[in-house]
UniProtKB/TrEMBL annotation, chain A:
InterPro entries: GH3, GH3_C, GH3_M. This is GH3 auxin-responsive promoter. Residues 438-547 form the GH3 C-terminal domain. It comes from the Bacteria. GO terms for cellular component: cytoplasm. Residues 349-420 form the GH3 middle domain. One of its GO terms (molecular function) is acid-amino acid ligase activity.
From TrEMBL, chain B:
It comes from the Bacteria. Belongs to the anti-sigma-factor antagonist family. Residues 1-100 form the STAS domain. CDD domains: STAS_anti-anti-sigma_factors. GO terms for molecular function: anti-sigma factor antagonist activity. PROSITE patterns: STAS. This is Anti-sigma factor antagonist.
Length: 562, 100
């Protein structure tokens, strides 16, 4: 019975997903027009809002008048409206009912609260679950092993706070999970006490404790690959404890779970010596051969954002997965779901034409012109800043992302996220992106023969001229004696990744780049600390640029000086 | 790292000597488990002879701090050397831990 229920639920989702694929294929045939019409509909619907009146939405009938009337915006432009909305005011930036406020991971001290309409939630639900499951199902049947539609392990937790207007604030991925809350426990292994935690607990243990008992586990989904990789690392270290508990039907006393929650969880647990023996036998063979297919024979895929800056974690996951494929999910932000993978293992994302209206500023444009392009005007291989008008009341919003056009799906661009504008490092105008840093660091690891755990870049302007400092954590400590050699390698790789750095170092505009290694477990400690401070694990992104004093102090205090 | 336990009233005092780092943190955590898993525990970590705390050591301290919240327990760190205090200050741990 237990196997039939998830199969039915997923089959229904996949069926809806196939319909969504059909609809998406129709929309993308005509994507530029669909997208423009979405903008005109949004403007019309919201003409009577305060924002609409301020920018004369009622006079907007074309793209040109939209661009003339409505300026670019940032979060700060909406913050005063949002403050009032949280107190209960309506009709300020949108007439569509707001159902949630997405807390962004952007700032620890003052997270942004992004309004989310029912339409936006619907887009997330239909694309990130139904559409994506249908794509996965189709791909698995064609090129991999068929998905038997057993339960999955969902790592997206729901931690909400209640606002004065009675709505919830929390991560957008959490809201997505909340929107299928009634189906959740038919689809996933973790009980509600774990998915909706009221207090901080050892959630990695809790997720694994239930997932490991299910031999038919068929996938893991998470907002970001970081969480999946961390979970597997935890399993590698703590499998004995987990297996002992599975054998005895217990939860080890050292696991931090509030007493009342532990009591409820224990009611759902029975001793399972047979499964424990099976798991123990596999774990005792070690983790050098992919462990996931050995402990979960029906496991078919991982569903998580894992491209770009997350690729270090994706690479680690391959060791656990073997040939099992990854679905790279979506390109999205708290403000909107913007693009989706339409193939398994592809790291290119098709813009979703009915989710937001998109404008683009070419990154190679000289001067300060703010003239934008629409999707039909984009060129393959070029980078663009993406500007969105979403379905929750943000208009011509500079989300600060730069995307690269990789190709076309029908009349819709396929894109890749390249970097965030506010995460670009530029000491003397050389504009180094996350992508450059990522390439240079990976090439360094290859040449130095080390396994990379994580890395960040710091623009050191305390010395003159300024320089790049690459901070890295490696799995094994590297020899101090070779520091000069490593420094040369990273300098060379950075200069290849961004030739402007090389030229500027040669001409003395920049000092030679430096490399510094942090102590083991430094990045894991940073994530622990963020979670301790209340940041949801769903929202934790890798620290690629050390751009605040807090990060600077933290990472430089933990440099390996020995 | 050497660890010695002694009882002072209701408190368990842990004298620590040497380095709390990647090599020693797992054993340190194991040895302290029975104390920080007890409801209402009261631990005093005496750092007088402790020379170094690494990221791995900080992770264990953070874990015990979390436990103290969950189990209405208490962890006090005392006699911290200036170089370790500097690490606590820079990493934000001085705001999280109770240091005397």
């Amino acid at each position: 019975m237990i196997k039939i229920i998830p199969k039915l639920v997923y089959s229904l989702n996949v069926k809806k997903g196939y319909e969504k694929i059909k609809r998406f294929d129709e929309l993308t045939k005509n994507a530029p027009e669909v997208n423009k019409q979405l903008m005109l509909d949004l403007v019309k619907r919201n003409a009577s809002t305060e924002y609409g009146k301020k920018y004369h939405f009622d006079q907007i009938e074309t793209l040109e008048t939209y661009k003339e009337n409505v300026p670019f915006s940032t979060y700060d432009d909406y913050a005063p409206y949002i403050e009032r909305m949280i107190e209960g005011a309506e009709g300020l930036i949108t007439n569509d009912p707001i159902v949630h406020y997405a807390l962004t991971s952007g700032s620890v001290d003052n997270p942004k609260r992004i309004p989310v309409s029912e339409d936006t939630v619907k887009n997330y639900r239909e694309y990130a679950t139904q559409y994506s499951f249908a794509i996965i199902c189709r791909a698995l049947e064609k090129n991999w092993k068929k998905w038997k539609k057993g339960r999955g392990l969902n790592l997206m937790e729901v931690k909400f706070e209640t606002l004065p207007n009675g709505l919830f604030a929390g991560s957008i991925s959490g809201r997505g999970v909340y929107s299928i809350k009634d189906l959740l426990f038919l689809m996933f292994t973790s009980p509600k006490e774990v998915v909706f935690p009221k207090e901080i607990m050892d959630s990695k243990y809790a997720h694994l404790r239930f997932a490991l008992t299910d031999r038919s586990l068929s996938f893991i989904c998470s907002a970001f690959m970081t969480a999946v990789s961390d979970l597997m690392k935890y399993l590698e270290i703590n499998w004995e404890l987990l297996v002992d508990d599975i054998e005895k039907g217990t939860i080890n006393a050292e696991i931090k779970i509030p007493d009342d929650v532990k009591k409820q969880l224990l009611q759902q647990i029975k001793p399972d010596p047979k499964r424990a023996a099976e798991l123990r036998a596999e774990f005792q063979k070690g983790f050098s051969d992919p462990i996931i297919p050995r402990i979960w024979p029906e496991f078919r895929f991982v569903h998580a954002i894992g491209s770009g800056g997350f690729s270090v974690y994706t690479d680690k996951m391959r060791n656990y997965l073997g040939d099992i494929p990854i679905y790279f999910s979506i390109y999205a932000a708290s403000e909107s779901i913007m693009a989706i993978c339409n193939e398994m293992e592809s790291q290119e994302f098709v813009l979703i034409p009915d989710s937001a209206f998109y404008e683009f500023i070419p990154m190679d444009r000289e001067g300060e012109s703010e003239e934008t392009l629409t999707m039909d005007q984009l060129e393959i291989g070029k980078d663009y800043e993406i500007i969105i008008t979403n379905t929750s009341g943000f208009y011509r919003y500079r989300i600060q992302d730069v995307v690269r056009v990789m190709g076309w799906y029908q009349k819709c661009p396929k894109i890749q996220f390249v970097y965030r504008l506010n995460q670009m490092v530029s000491i003397a105008g050389e504009k180094t992106t996350e992508e450059c840093i990522s390439w240079a660091v990976k090439e360094f690891a290859k040449e130095a023969g080390c396994e990379l755990v994580d890395y960040s870049v710091y623009a050191d302007t305390m010395i003159s001229p300024g320089r790049y400092v690459l901070l890295m954590e490696t799995a094994e400590r590297l020899s101090k004696d070779k520091h000069d050699e490593y420094r040369e390698i990273i300098g060379e790789k950075l200069s290849i990744a961004n030739p402007s750095i090389g030229k500027k170092v040669k001409s003395g505009v920049l000092s030679h780049s430096e490399i510094t290694f942090v102590q083991e477990e430094t990045y894991a400690l940073y994530r622990d600390l963020m979670i301790h401070r209340g940041i949801s694990g769903n929202q934790l992104k890798p620290v690629r640029v050390i751009d605040t004093l807090i990060k600077e102090n933290f990472f430089f205090a933990l440099v390996d000086k020995e | 790292m050497n660890i010695e336990f002694k009882k002072e009233n209701e408190n368990t005092v842990v004298d620590m000597e040497g380095r709390l780092d990647t090599n020693t943190a797992p054993d340190f955590q194991k040895e302290l488990e029975e104390y920080y898993n007890a409801q209402g525990f009261s631990l005093i970590l005496d750092f007088e002879k402790l020379d170094f705390v690494s990221s791995a050591g900080l992770r264990v301290l953070l874990l015990i701090q979390k436990k103290s919240k969950a189990l209405s327990g208490n962890m006090i760190i005392k006699n911290v050397k200036p170089e370790i205090q500097e690490v606590f200050n820079m990493t934000g741990f001085s705001e999280i831990l109770t240091i005397e």
